[in-house]
Amino acid sequence: MIGGRAPSAYLQQLQTHEHVQLNDKSMDAILQSHVITRSTFGQTTLRTFSQLVNRPF
Question: What is the Cα–Cα distance from 21 to 55, expressed in whole angstroms?
């Protein structure tokens, strides 16, 4: 589903997909359960996003 798009575009596509249909509050809760914030998806490159979400805790 990512297909070379920016993470922010991927998040929007996932959230509005016909089988998902989540509002912002519900999507944010899912992201937070994985210790990811919506702003992380604002990163413009998949490489930067990957570095952020694969960081050690």
Answer: 29
Q: Among positive and negative, which fits the CA dihedral 1, 5, 26, 29? A: positive
Of 11, 3, 5, 1, nearest in space to 37 by CA: 11
**C-alpha atoms less than 13 angstroms from C-alpha of 20 in its C-beta half-sphere:** 13
pLDDT tens digits in sequence order for the chain, 57 residues long: 456 667 777 788 888 899 999 998 998 898 889 877 777 776 566 676 667 666 554
The number of angstroms, rounded, from the C-alpha of 5 to the middle of its chain's C-alpha atoms is: 12
d(CA 16, CA 48): 24
